[in-house]
């Protein structure tokens, strides 16, 4: 029977393969139909698998399918196995539904691009790889998807590869991700060494106190710790966390639908998914969890700060994405896995919506993304503006919008977590405080973005202003759907404290769903919950207020005054704290110097001069020698053939040299015996010349002869072996020493 | 099968000596003549003498074929070729790589000397010693050869006929004058 | 006549042909020398067939003759073709196969 789960990643992959091979031949409408149908079909199958099989998906560890055994070597068996449980099912739904919407959006956005088929092929490739990533039931399969999304990300960032900057942005993303992938691999190997398996359920089942995973490995820390840290390094690369976040802002060089799908909604959340997937391993190592949480929280704050002073629409959103990913990591790092995934879920909607709004705005602004040149777009782009407002309020955390619930779940979890035990108990509250500050920052920079783009007078030049128009339906429709998601997705995870107000008890639907996959949701005291909700709502409003104070209706006096007062601080923030430059100085330049030295010493001198030179000389001399024979002259070939034939006959007809010549000297009596094969010796005639006078002294068919010498001296015995059948002969000589 | 036959008669000896020296003599003429036409005539002579030798070996069918195929068909082919490309050689022996080729001749000479050595040494062996004078009934005539060809050697026979067909087609294709290309130039052949 | 004499004649004829193939410059002469060699081979086949009292050698000699015809046809076609391209048929000029 054909596997249903396999179809989910397979259909987009097949679409990608077909479009890559034959896409150029088809018209745009055929290309887009194929691409969208492929993703949409896998969306329908995911929905069907998830909701029809809901009890099994949620409660029985998911639906799993063994497609085939990929390879088996000794005790290692790696299966191409897929599993849809509540976690991967949710991811599947997010990827396929948002993927379908963004494919749809791309019809309008990419309408004027030449490489239409290539774009859709890469998008389909991405969807297939991402679905393989989330559905993979063994770490190698997950890793294939992991690398597949990395590849398609690279291809799509550099989609307009004719611009050098785009190509190098793609390269930067790829190389930065490779560093993370190295961590992923090390983590995978560590887990394999400890558990002897690469199957995720087996590893998770083995993750118990006192198992091989909790045995100390290095620096007094357990296997689980190091595996967790290395896996997190991979996650940090993929999900753009400190210190590997630098590629994501540059990745905005790709087309906007790509930024929305890959670099906001789905691929970059793969790291969060990975940590949640390996939750049992992380729970064994609170220290690793603390690292995840602290890195996430710091990233959230740091990226939010950078977002304050960016002037490119998509870059602001990119730093916002880094920041929100930090929130998610802080969530999963505080053992609040359901919360982290919840934020992933809502973020996918509102951030994809924000990016698509950015695309719509840039479409209207003739491709410009500089927000200092925008303003007043609210009236000109009514639909885009409404959608942007919903998403903006959502990311700021204004109540009833989805971001409010998910962010609140993270904050409450940070304050209420008990995963760390005594030694690390300070981590939770610290993370919570950092997140609160970051949430304030988020509200501020998003409000800045909103006011600068949509309110006040337009600052663009005449020609651009004249051109401003609302986007086509194919672009607006996905926006509206995403806005609806941003508005309502939060209700899937309403916290227990709020549910009580409506007379419901227990955990939210989402938390219940996720419980078998990532463990029970954090029990946070209702009091904490209420306090956190109050503070975060207040902070969101304060942030929006600040944003209005500085930028409401365009740049206002306070903004100019601030920039005048602290020009260096503003410049520092605008330059992203010059992290790229620091990396350049401490990593890139030394590496380049090392490469140059290696190039000069190894390549230029060792390889080019010595190795290549020597072999070139040998080949040259050999070639010159052989060229004489290889003259292209048939007659000479034949001559060589004849000479070779003659040589063979000459060698074959001569009697073989005897195997051994035995000499026995007793006194003046010497006996010489030739030892040879019985078969050969029948036709042989031997002549022995003992005294070296050229006259044979003994003759006969026997291979042995004796002689009595006159006195002590050194003599040379010459034996002539003659073949009577061929009339050929061979002379062998042997020294005989007669001692006094 | 061994047929014990009486020794060769004087006429047999004479026929062999004349035919063998004709074969070798015409062969030498073939390779040494400067003019292609002369060499070709010598080759025809060598072939006819060979046919005679075949006949003394009781291979009557092949003797006839030899005359028909060689002296007839193949030689006509050669004559046409000579007609087309006839140029008397100014320098009959190629000088380039002459040393190597001379060494090749010497090597070949040594090889054939060795072979001849064995043949002479083993001249008493049954295969080589059989005196051939009287014809054996049915040996070497059309009927018996034909029977063999269409029974044991049917497949090679058919294969050879196919090969001949291919060779004829290839000959036509290779020797055909090149068609003018649209631009009016002739295609390069070599 | 004893069979070994035929073999000796065959060997001598083959050697003459070989010398021609090795030393002559003109492709036509080389082809003629090859014909001599084929004839020498046939002679040896027939002599041995007679010695063995067997007729299979005749069949093989028959095939050799067919092969000789094929070889002559293709070989002469090549000679004509080379002549058309280069206006001469010297073998030492025909070395496009080199390198």
Structural notes for this entry:
The complex is a heterotrimer of chains A (740), B (190) and C (99). Chain A is elongated and about 130 Å long. Chain A contains 30 helices and eleven strands. Chain A is α+β, with helices and mostly antiparallel strands and 740 residues long. The relative contact order of chain B is 0.09. In chain B, helix 1 runs antiparallel to helix 2 and helix 2 packs antiparallel against helix 3 (60-85). Chain B folds into three domains: 1-86, Four Helix Bundle (Hemerythrin (Met), subunit A), CATH 1.20.120; 97-134; 136-177. Chain B has seven helices and no strands. Chain C has 99 residues and is mostly helical. Chain C has a single domain (3-86), classed as Orthogonal Bundle (Helix Hairpins), CATH 1.10.287. The chains are: A alpha+beta (740), B mainly alpha (190), C mainly alpha (99). Chain A binds chain C through residues 627, 630-635, 638-639, 642, and chain C through 18, 21-23, 30, 91-92, 94-99.
Largest sheet of chain C: none
Instruction: Please give the CATH architecture of chain C.
Output: Orthogonal Bundle
Would you identify the regions of chain C where 5 or more consecutive residues have pLDDT less than 50?
Answer: none
Distance between the terminal alpha carbons of chain C, to the nearest Å?
51 Å
Secondary-structure-derived class of chain B: mainly alpha
- Radius of gyration from the alpha-carbon trace of chain C, in angstroms: 16 Å
Query: What is the helix fraction of residues of chain C, given as a range?
Result: over 70%
Secondary structure topology:
The complex is a heterotrimer of chains A (740), B (190) and C (99).
Chain A: H1 4-22, H2 28-52, H3 54-59, E1 63-73, E2 76-84, H4 86-109, H5 116-135, H6 139-157, H7 164-195, H8 200-206, E3 216-218, E4 221-222, H9 223-238, H10 247-250, H11 256-265, H12 270-277, H13 279-284, H14 286-307, H15 313-333, H16 337-364, H17 377-380, H18 382-396, H19 402-416, H20 427-454, H21 462-467, H22 473-488, H23 496-501, H24 509-518, H25 526-551, H26 557-565, H27 567-574, H28 579-629, H29 634-653, E5 660-666, E6 669-675, H30 678-681, E7 684-689, E8 698-700, E9 704-708, E10 713-723, E11 728-738
Antiparallel strand pairs in A: 1-2, 3-4, 5-6, 6-9, 7-8, 7-10, 10-11
Helix pairs in contact in A: 1-2, 1-5, 2-4, 2-5, 4-5, 4-11, 4-16, 4-22, 5-6, 6-7, 6-11, 7-9, 9-12, 9-14, 11-16, 12-15, 12-16, 14-15, 14-20, 15-16, 15-19, 15-20, 16-18, 16-19, 16-22, 16-24, 18-20, 18-22, 19-20, 19-25, 20-25
Chain B: H1 10-32, H2 36-56, H3 60-85, H4 98-121, H5 126-129, H6 142-149, H7 154-175
Chain C: H1 3-23, H2 27-52, H3 56-86
Helix pairs in contact in C: 1-2, 2-3
């Amino acid at each position: 029977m054909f596997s249903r789960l396999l179809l989910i990643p397979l259909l987009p992959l097949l679409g990608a393969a077909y479009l890559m091979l034959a896409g150029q031949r088809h018209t745009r409408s055929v290309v887009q139909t194929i691409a969208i149908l492929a993703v949409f079909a896998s969306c329908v199958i995911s929905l069907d698998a998830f909701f029809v099989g809901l009890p099994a998906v949620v409660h029985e560890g998911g639906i799993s399918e063994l497609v085939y055994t990929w390879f088996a070597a000794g005790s290692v068996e790696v299966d191409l196995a897929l599993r849809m449980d509540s976690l991967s099912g949710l991811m599947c739904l997010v990827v396929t539904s948002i993927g379908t919407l963004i494919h749809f959006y791309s019809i309008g956005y990419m309408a004027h691009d030449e490489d239409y088929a290539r774009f859709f092929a890469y998008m389909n490739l991405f969807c297939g790889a991402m679905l393989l990533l989330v559905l993979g039931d063994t770490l190698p399969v997950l890793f294939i998807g992991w690398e597949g999304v990395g590849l398609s990300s690279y291809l799509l960032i550099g989609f307009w590869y004719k611009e050098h900057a785009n190509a190098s942005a793609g390269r930067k993303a790829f190389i930065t991700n490779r560093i993370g992938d190295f961590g992923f691999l090390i983590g995978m190997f560590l887990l394999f060494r400890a558990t002897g398996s690469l199957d995720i359920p087996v590893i998770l089942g083995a993750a118990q106190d006192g198992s091989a995973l909790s045995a100390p490995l290095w620096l007094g820390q357990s296997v689980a710790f190091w595996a967790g840290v290395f896996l997190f390094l991979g996650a940090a690369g993929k999900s753009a966390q400190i210190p590997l976040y630098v590629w994501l802002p540059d990745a905005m060089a790709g087309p906007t639908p790509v930024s929305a799908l890959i670099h906001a909604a789905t691929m970059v959340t793969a790291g969060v998914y990975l940590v949640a997937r390996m939750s049992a391993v992380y729970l064994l190592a609170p220290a690793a969890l603390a690292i995840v949480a602290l890195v996430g929280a710091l990233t959230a704050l740091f990226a939010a700060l950078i977002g304050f002073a960016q002037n490119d629409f998509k870059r602001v959103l990119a730093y916002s994405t880094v920041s929100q990913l930090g929130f998610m990591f802080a969530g999963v790092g505080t053992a609040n896995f359901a919360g982290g995934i919840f934020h992933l879920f809502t973020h996918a909607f509102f951030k994809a919506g924000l990016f698509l709004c950015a695309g719509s705005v840039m479409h209207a602004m003739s491709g410009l993304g500089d927000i200092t040149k925008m303003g007043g777009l609210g009236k000109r782009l009514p639909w885009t503006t409404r959608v942007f407002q919903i998403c903006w309020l959502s990311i700021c955390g204004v109540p009833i919008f989805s971001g409010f619930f998910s962010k609140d779940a993270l904050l409450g979890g940070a304050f209420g977590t008990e995963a760390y035990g005594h030694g690390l108990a300070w981590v939770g509250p610290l993370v919570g405080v950092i997140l609160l500050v970051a949430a304030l920052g988020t509200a501020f920079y998003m409000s800045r973005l909103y006011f600068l783009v949509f309110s006040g007078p337009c600052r663009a030049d005449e020609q651009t202003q004249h051109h401003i128009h609302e986007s086509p339906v194919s672009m607006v429709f996905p926006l509206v759907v995403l806005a609806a998601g941003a508005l309502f997705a939060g209700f899937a995870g309403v916290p227990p404290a709020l549910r009580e107000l409506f007379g419901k008890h227990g955990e939210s639907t989402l938390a219940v769903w996720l419980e078998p996959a990532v463990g029970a949701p954090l029990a946070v005291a209702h009091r904490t919950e209420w306090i956190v909700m109050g503070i975060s709502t207040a902070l969101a409003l304060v942030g929006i207020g600040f944003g209005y104070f500085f930028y409401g209706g365009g740049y206002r006096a306070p903004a100019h005054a601030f920039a005048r007062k602290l020009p260096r601080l503003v410049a520092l923030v605008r330059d992203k704290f010059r992290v790229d430059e620091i990396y350049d100085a401490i990593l890139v330049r030394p590496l380049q110097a090392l490469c140059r030295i290696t190039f000069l010493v190894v390549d230029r001198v060792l390889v080019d001069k010595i190795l290549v030179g020597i072999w070139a000389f040998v080949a040259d001399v050999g070639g010159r020698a052989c060229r004489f024979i290889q003259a292209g002259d048939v007659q000479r070939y034949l001559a060589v053939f004849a000479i070779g034939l003659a040589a063979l006959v000459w060698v074959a007809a001569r009697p073989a040299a005897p195997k051994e010549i035995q000499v026995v000297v007793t006194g003046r009596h010497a006996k010489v015996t030739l030892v040879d094969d019985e078969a050969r010796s029948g036709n042989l005639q031997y002549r022995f010349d003992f005294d070296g006078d050229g006259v044979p002294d003994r003759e006969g068919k026997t291979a042995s002869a004796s002689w009595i010498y006159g006195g002590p001296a050194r003599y040379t015995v010459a034996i002539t072996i003659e073949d009577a059948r061929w009339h050929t002969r061979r002379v062998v000589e042997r020294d005989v020493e007669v001692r006094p | 099968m061994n047929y014990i036959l009486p020794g060769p008669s004087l006429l047999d000896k004479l026929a062999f000596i004349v035919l063998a020296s004709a074969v070798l003599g015409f062969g030498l003429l073939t390779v040494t003549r400067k003019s292609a036409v002369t060499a070709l005539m010598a080759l025809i002579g060598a072939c006819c003498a060979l046919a005679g030798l075949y006949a003394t070996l009781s291979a009557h069918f092949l003797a006839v074929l030899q005359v028909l195929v060689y002296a007839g068909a193949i030689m006509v082919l050669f004559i046409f070729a000579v007609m087309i490309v006839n140029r008397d050689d100014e320098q009959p022996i190629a000088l380039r790589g002459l040393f190597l080729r001379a060494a090749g001749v010497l090597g070949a000479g040594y090889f054939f000397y060795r072979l001849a050595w064995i043949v002479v040494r083993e001249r008493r062996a049954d295969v080589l010693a059989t005196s051939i004078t009287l014809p054996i009934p049915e040996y070497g005539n059309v009927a018996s050869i034909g029977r063999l060809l269409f029974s044991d050697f049917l497949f090679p026979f058919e294969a050879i006929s196919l090969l001949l067909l291919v060779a004829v087609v290839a000959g036509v294709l290779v020797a055909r004058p090149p068609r003018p290309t649209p631009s009016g130039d002739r295609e390069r052949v070599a | 006549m004893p069979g070994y004499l035929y073999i000796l004649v065959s060997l001598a004829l083959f050697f003459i042909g070989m010398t021609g193939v090795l030393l002559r410059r003109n492709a036509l002469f080389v082809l003629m020398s090859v014909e001599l060699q084929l004839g020498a081979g046939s002679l040896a086949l027939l002599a041995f067939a007679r010695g063995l009292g067997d007729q299979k050698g005749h069949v093989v000699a028959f095939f050799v003759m067919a092969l000789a015809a094929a070889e002559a046809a293709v070989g002469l076609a090549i000679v004509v073709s080379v002549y058309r391209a280069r206006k001469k048929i010297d073998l030492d000029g025909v070395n496009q196969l080199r390198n």
